[in-house]
Amino acid sequence: MRKILDLLVKTFLAFLPFSVFLSVFFSHKLGVPGVNYLKEILLLAIGCATAYAYFADRKWPKFDVTDDLVGAYVVWMLASTFVNGGSIGHYAYGGRYDFEFLFAFLIFKHAHAYLPAKISEYVRIFLISATAAIVIGTFVRFVFHEEILLHFGFSPNLSNWKFGGSVPIYHGIDGANVRRFQGIFDGPNPAAFFLLAYLGILFHFFRRRKDEMFVVSLWALVVFLLVLYTYSRSALVGIALGVGAMLAVSAKAIWNKHRKAVFVAIPVVALFCLAFYVKFEGSMDRIVLREGSSKGHFHRMATGFERFREHPVFGEGLAASGPAYRFVVPQNPDENLYEGETKEKEDYYIPESWYVQQLVEGGIPALGSFLAILAVIALALLRVSPPFFAAFVACSTMNLFLHSFESAYASLSLFALAGLFFAISRKSEPSVAGSRHPHA
Questions:
Q1: Taking the C-alpha atoms of 411, 417, 420 and 425 in order, what is their torsion angle to the nearest 10 degrees?
Q2: Which H or E run includes 172?
Q3: What is the DSSP string of 78-145?
Q4: How far is CA 17 from CA 213, 277, 412, in A?
Q5: Quick check: pTM over 0.85?
Q6: 8 Å CB contact between 362 and 314
Q7: pLDDT tens profile 169-197
Q8: Per-residue CA distances from 60 to 2, 52, 54, 56, 111 (Å)
Q9: What is the CA radius of gyration of the chain?
Q10: How far apart are CA 207 and CA 198, in angstroms?
Q11: For 63, which DSSP code?
């Protein structure tokens, strides 16, 4: 069973970075549906294999506070949906979006006990696949250009998406002649989310390998530039808070161990940012401020708060807010997200904040338990990997202004690996790439 579990986990981690591309290609180019559910099938198989391993060993998993918090959160959201008379669709689709990445965290945390390889081996598999996906996406953006994606089933409906339709080849910004980087992912903001998670894992894996750190740092600067080219404002806020939180608790260690790297990184990053500003100086107000987009975000968030005030305790149940609503509320297939009745529904059901969405769906108890889950995970990551901690905080911060947790390939990557790291944090000796811990 250990070999089967090992194979399933490696396949899952290798598949996630290419999940969007393969799903679009098979569904919209070849007409083969269901590939987008392969990651859920693999996750279920990992869960079943883990459960069987414990059963065969006649042991119970070591439950902790995260199991309690996730269990309480799930039960509350299910109860809220029941009280509000939710349909099967509300449970199925709402649960898929809200619970899936949390289940991935728990499954990987408990699967760790039966994984035969070191954690660094699974991290390496993910990094190889993710790096390949990012390199391909970079060539798509800057060499072949996004139009090549039309040959693989992506949509020419630029900057817009229709329910059930394919992923646009790129998104722009109103009033600014730019193409936001998304590579072979499903949009610029989810791409930024994934890239931030990737950077945290990258620095964790190589942070003790001084001979390779120079090359890794150069590649990290390339990835950081790609984040800038997503023009994701929430990602920049996330980086600031994530790095700031890491420095607040690890400044002394970083200064003592990586002083030279810091002296090099600061001016190089500053030059990148200056060059970026000079290139887009004439349109920076439209790129950064985006008056129409900002007003739309705040309007949707305000609508979400108004809905929360009407049901502050139980909320309105799963799929009452957020992207899952599209599966339970009838949609017009001829309208994109910014047209007519569809836009009105989007403005009402999408609060543009995962945390406001939690308030609408499950009230104060749902948001409180969800924030507690994030806090416990973040503190555990801080003990074993400050870089991954910074990435986790950055990705969580992004969801103040977005609902990026809905992008399953990105959130599953973040939380599945967080589950492995959390399992390490419960051991007496932290496990990091290059350490002497037997599970590292």
A1: -90
A2: strand 171-173
A3: HHHHHHTT--HHHHHHHHHHHHHHHHHHHHHHHHGGG--S-HHHHHHHHHHHHHHHHHHHHHIIIII-
A4: 23, 30, 10
A5: yes
A6: yes
A7: 998 887 777 889 999 999 999 999 999 99
A8: 17, 11, 6, 10, 12
A9: 21
A10: 14
A11: -
